[in-house]
Amino acid sequence: MNTRLRIALQKSGKLSDGSIDLLNKCSFNIKPAKNHYLVKSDELNTDFLMVRDDDIPGFIDSGASDIGIAGENLFIEYQLDNPNSNIEIISRLKFATCRLSIAVINNGSVKCLNDLNGKTIATSYPSTLKDFLHKNNINAKIIVMHGSVELAPKIGIADAICDLVSTGTTLKENGLLEMEVILRSEAVLVGRKGLSPDIKKRVDELIFRFQSVIKAKNSKYIMLHIDKANVAKLKNLLPGCEAPTTLALDGYPDKVAVHVVCEENVFWDTISKLKSIGATSILSVAIEKMME
Question: What is the per-residue pLDDT across 204-220, written as a single tens digit (0 to 9) for each?
């Protein structure tokens, strides 16, 4: 591994925090200082380039970095601007989820997409918006803003906006109503096509680590006691329960201890159902990493 693996990351913000958290769970132990733009790690012989989020696709495409973690929305915007680019999404990372939406003045004259004809829309994603309007036969003027896009209708320079939405709180605070979702986005691992075999091998190892952490994040290790006759019923109550491990319980010939992995986000909804089929001593344990 003489060649160093170069990974572009957002230098600050929610995407940066999520990226560093994921990488640190994969043994990289990154602690970037405020004004450091290059962070070195012995893990997989890696250099991390800390840059602006909208520069990440270009860094990868130009060869300045091999891969990077970017918002899917920025990847799509870059692809629309650079149709002959040499980059692709190589893994989805299941964090920094949001949506790119058109929002309009609450109780204003714009009620549906067709009402945008002849109107002005402010956005930081002009290519994605232009592509959407073209596909929907909407003729509207687009003005580009970088930051504080939600203020455009309030100060009278646009009739609507197209911006990223997470909770929708900012829209409500500015008297705006989310009218149409253009695309749904999450953090993605973007790579350059045609990586060398050495770099490709390390990228594959990184993806394996990422997916192991992601799978563990969404799952719990469940242990419980139950009658042998009801073990089969667990498959309908615990998602991901393909073949639960069963162990004999000393002194209870008709009961077994069951160990199984299931999705955390539905576990609490199923506790009462587990109890209804006789499950007892239910224990839920966090999983740090999960490999298949």
Answer: 999 999 999 998 887 88
